[in-house]
Design brief:
The chain is an alpha/beta fold and 639 residues long. The chain is built from 30 helices and 18 strands. Helices cover 46% and strands 13% of the residues.
């Protein structure tokens, strides 16, 4: 094995991985940000296939983009690359009889919230059979046997738990299974790979690549601490400690934030991005604060290149960005509608207190009046708006009047969430199995319109012709198309509704069945969005497309920029607390979660990093001096 460790074709870490596999051990390659984990993954694939030419290797990834990158960098007929969801579905989809039995049991299991089928009266429906085959689609229709993204992992885990033959087949199919970005992997997937597969006499080898400190999603396993060791289902950890991305000032700060004992050092490769003239780039990492929460003074102090290609301003939530990026009303509709919250309050009251009350064919206005009739004191308060809801109603009286005119059965069934508006990193998760984005059909339709405009204005005519609904039958049609798209591109002063109608009338982007269904089912939302200036959606589109200097701290994971400015503001999110991060006072789970998001933000910077903390306590300032160094903590009010 000594020869393997000295194999000059591979890095030291890859040699250690290959030695572990030669001993039949599962392994974990832990690497901090910028350590080149994907490079090690590609090297490992190459090494495994060189040593075992007839072996089949499965590589399962977190996103479709990662799948494409690995396929591009490692092309071999014995390599199978797919997302986690696609991989699991491909293992179970041919066993339809067993799939159907397992799915029916999950639907009938009261503890399985993601498999509920509701009858017309709103109660869970029990199933004894499903007609047709079980299918995996970008929509959910359990009654017809159609599952979607959220159900695949649970269904697959139940299948592997029940049918040991599945484990045997998988072990026979792939000698090696490699998991990229393991920290974001659902614990059920790890259970399949390490517990269920190890129960067979003939077992494969499972390898994990990732960084526990970058586990910023609650759905992921986070770390493999419970599996480290030499047992049958355990993993051997190999650490990758060099950093090829960040300057030394950022590496030193990041090492103080890490809590798992992995300490990084600058790369010793002179060709690494963080090396210059044979020496590591120093860069800068500073903490700036002010009694004024406005970022403008921080921007002026830093005086960085404002181009979004070089500088990113990171905030914890989209809510903190929406006004800066120019789509506050869209965010209000999708994330702060207190009228729908009030409707939910009424619906809950009817269900628990007045279940015999009939809402059929009644408007919201009628229901409110009838439910309130005869009530006084505390009883009427139960069906009245809360103070926050009342304040929202007073601020938006026209919207409330529109809500009152809506059928109660319609408006009370509306579920809205900001993920339907913004296709963030969580939306990438929904694409793991090719399931599309989390955007609702109205937002998807608007994306089609703006994408068409963008393709035309950027002279990408081939993609433009493939994307438009306009039919070309003659030269005159080509002339007309040019005129129509130029008129649509001039969106100045137009509302979103006017743009939807114009794109439809001109045949450029026609309204489809999905938009029609959305309009009927969510008319309350549809009317509000239609009335907004189209410029709001254009601003949202530019933000999502990375054409602004703004980003959420979650959205930036896996990316890097010359300059990174992080705003340490919790917003309305109590899962994070920046003060607790510095002081150590607070829930351990909140401190841990905040430490990880700070680490991810910190390690995005290729040159310069700044944290801006509005109105910090004296204790936070003192802790910042200990972490950043006294000379790198700046009071903007004194400068």
């Amino acid at each position: 094995m000594a020869a393997q460790l000295n194999d000059k074709r591979y890095s030291n870490e890859t040699c250690q991985v290959l030695e572990a596999t030669n001993h039949g051990k599962n392994f974990l390659l832990s690497g901090g940000a910028g350590s080149g984990k994907t490079y090690s993954l590609i090297e490992t694939i190459s090494g495994l296939l060189h040593q075992n030419p007839l072996a089949r290797v499965a590589c399962i990834t977190y996103t479709n983009a990662a799948t494409r990158e690995i396929e591009h960098r490692s092309n071999n007929e014995n390599l199978h690359v797919s997302t986690i969801h696609d991989f699991l579905w491909s293992r179970i989809k041919h066993f339809q009889k067993e799939l159907k039995e397992t799915l029916i049991d999950l639907i009938n299991d009261d503890d399985q919230k993601l498999f509920k089928v509701l009858a017309q009266d709103g109660t869970p429906e029990k199933f004894t059979s499903i007609d047709g085959e079980i299918e995996y689609k970008d929509y959910l229709k359990l009654r017809d046997g159609v599952i979607s993204h959220d159900q695949v992992i649970i269904l697959a885990h139940a299948m592997f738990s029940r049918y040991k033959k599945l484990c045997q087949i998988l072990n026979d199919t792939f000698q090696f299974i490699l998991v990229d970005e393991y920290q974001d992997t659902n614990p059920l997937v790890v259970d399949i790979l390490l517990e269920h597969l190890s129960c067979n006499k003939k077992r494969n080898i499972v390898g994990f690549f990732g960084d526990a400190m970058q586990s910023i999603y609650d759905e992921g396993i986070g770390n493999l601490d419970d599996f480290k060791g030499d047992g049958k289902s355990q993993v051997t950890e190999i650490k990758k400690e060099q950093n090829r991305r960040n300057p030394t000032s950022v590496i030193n700060l990041a090492n103080k934030i890490r809590t798992d004992g992995l300490k990084q050092s600058p790369s010793d490769d002179n060709s690494a991005p963080n090396m210059e003239d044979g020496a590591p780039i120093t860069g800068s990492a500073i903490f700036i604060y002010s009694s004024n929460p406005d970022l403008q003074k921080a921007r002026e102090y830093l005086d960085w290149d404002p181009s979004p290609l070089h500088t990113k301003e990171l905030n914890l939530t989209h809510n903190l960005i929406a006004s800066k990026a120019g789509f506050p009303s869209l965010m209000r509709i999708y994330d702060a509608d207190k009228i729908l919250e009030y409707v939910g309050r009424i619906r809950k009251h009817i269900k628990s207190e007045e279940p015999d009350y009939l809402v059929d064919d009644k408007t919201l206005d009628q229901v409110i009046k009838e439910i309130k009739a005869g009530k006084t004191g505390k009883e009427v308060n139960k069906v009245s708006p809360t103070p926050a809801q009342e304040a929202y109603i007073n601020e938006h009286p026209d919207i409330y009047q529109e809500a009152l005119s809506q059928p109660f059965s319609n408006i009370s069934s509306i579920y809205i969430d900001k993920d339907m508006l913004i296709d963030d990193q969580k939306a990438d998760q929904s694409m793991l199995g090719g399931g599309g984005t989390t955007n609702d059909h109205l937002i998807k339709h608007l994306h089609r319109i703006q994408k068409l405009i963008q393709l035309y204005t950027s002279s990408n005519f081939n993609d433009f012709m493939r994307s438009t609904d306009f039919k070309i039958r003659s030269h005159a049609d080509k002339v007309k198309l040019k005129h129509e798209i130029e008129e649509l591109s001039d969106a100045n002063g137009k509302t979103i509704g006017e743009m939807i109608d114009l794109a439809h009338v001109k045949g450029l982007v026609r309204k489809d069945d999905r938009l029609d269904v959305f309009q009927k089912a969510r008319n309350y939302i549809y009317k509000q969005v239609r009335s907004l200036p189209y410029s709001e959606f254009k601003n949202l589109y530019d933000y999502i497309d990375g054409q602004t200097p703004f980003s959420t701290q979650h959205k930036t994971k896996g990316r890097e920029y010359d300059n990174v400015l992080v705003t340490m503001d919790n917003g309305r999110w109590n899962k994070y607390n920046f003060e607790s991060f510095f002081t150590g006072n607070g829930k351990d789970t909140v401190i841990s979660r905040t430490s990880k998001i700070v680490y991810v933000c910190c390690t995005r910077a290729r040159r310069n990093l700044a944290f801006f903390y509005p109105q910090p306590s004296l204790e936070v300032i003192e802790k910042a001096k200990a972490m950043f160094g006294k000379d790198y903590v700046i009071d903007l009010d004194a400068s």
